[in-house]
Amino acid sequence: MSAPLIALEGVHAYYGASHVLHGIDLRLEPGACVSLMGRNGMGKTTTFKTIMGEVRARRGRVDVLGRDGTRVPTHAIARAGVGYVPEGRDIFPNLSVAENLTMAARPGAGGGRAWTLERVYELFPRLAERRGHWGDHLSGGEQQMLTIGRALMTNPRVMLLDEVTEGLAPLIREEIWSVIRAIKAAGIASIIVDKNVGRLIELADRHMILVKGRVVFEGDSDDLAADPDRLHALLGV
Ligand SMILES: Nc1ncnc2c1ncn2[C@@H]1O[C@H](COP(=O)(O)OP(=O)(O)OP(=O)(O)O)[C@@H](O)[C@H]1O
Ligand SMILES: [Mg+2]
């Protein structure tokens, strides 16, 4: 088995005195697609922040592309090859689409530049059409596409996608799901948080469900689909 890109072992994390993650174990293998599910407030975003070093694990091991995520700064984790698409949209409103993308551009950790402006425009024809528009003149869906495009321009080995289809019109959501499929097909490993369990079952190789900062389920899509009552109890779907 090849070395995992991300390995969390027994991770505990806090906001001040509030104990939020209670011993999380998580592994992401090269090229794999893992879903991270759970109701509101269960610790999904905090898990991503802990991977990025934005929240420091107080106990446990955080290994991200060979870096010790409990010590190195967030920008070093990003630079090592983790494209993080946080909840909410992370673009520069007073720069054009093209400027937003080019300013994010950098070679991957191995020097690769597979993701260019042209390739991002191919993936998001809407962004190509809007290339001269300012960030704040885009629709919510276009801003979300731009956020994902910016992460791809860093030529990442891993993408962390936190509710990237949230609050978007159905057609735009489907466009985003096709992009997520393309990201997977391109061999970029990913961890996806989303409310659409059906899409996650189709797309992800492995699923994890969090309840109050603990992993209560881990399995493949067949395991997940095998027990709808449990799924309902854990996720409310
Ligand atoms: N900055 C913060 N300060 C204090 N508590 C926080 C902070 N951010 C999150 N929390 C709390 O930590 C817990 C986990 O939050 P987290 O954002 O990781 O959940 P989530 O699973 O991503 O939820 P959602 O589905 O609502 O995005 C929640 O109880 C939340 O209220
Ligand atoms: Mg969240």
Shape: globular
CATH topology: Rossmann fold
Topology, number of strands: 10
**Helix content range of the residues, please?**
25-40%
For the sheet with most strands, the description reads:
6 strands, mixed
Give me the CATH superfamily.
Answer: P-loop containing nucleotide triphosphate hydrolases
The structural domain count equals 1
Enumerate the distinct ligands: adenosine-5'-triphosphate, magnesium ion
Question: How much strand?
Answer: 25-35%
Question: What do the pLDDT scores average to?
Answer: 95
Calculate the terminal CA-CA distance, rounded to whole Å: 34 Å
The rounded Rg comes to 17 Å
Q: Structural class, from helix and strand content?
A: alpha/beta
CATH architecture: 3-Layer(aba) Sandwich
The helix/strand series, from N terminus to C terminus, equals: EEEHEEHEHHHHEHEHEEHH
The helix tally amounts to: 10
CATH class: Alpha Beta
Going across the biggest sheet, name each strand in turn.
Answer: 6-7-8-3-9-10
Low-pLDDT residue intervals, each spanning 5 or more residues: none
Folded structure, characterized:
This protein has 237 residues and is of the alpha/beta class. 37% of the residues lie in helices and 25% in strands. The two termini are 34 Å apart. The chain has helices at 44-52, 74-81, 97-104, 117-123, 125-129, 140-152, 170-185, 197-203, 221-226, 228-235, and strands at residues 6-15, 18-28, 33-37, 59-64, 67-68, 82-85, 158-162, 189-193, 206-211, 214-219. It has a single domain, classed as Rossmann fold (3-Layer(aba) Sandwich), CATH 3.40.50.300. The strands form two sheets. Strands 6-7-8-3-9-10 form a six-stranded mixed sheet, sandwiched between helices. It has ten helices and ten strands. Helix 3 runs parallel beside helix 6. It binds adenosine-5'-triphosphate and magnesium ion. Adenosine-5'-triphosphate binds at residues 15, 18, 20, 38, 40-46.
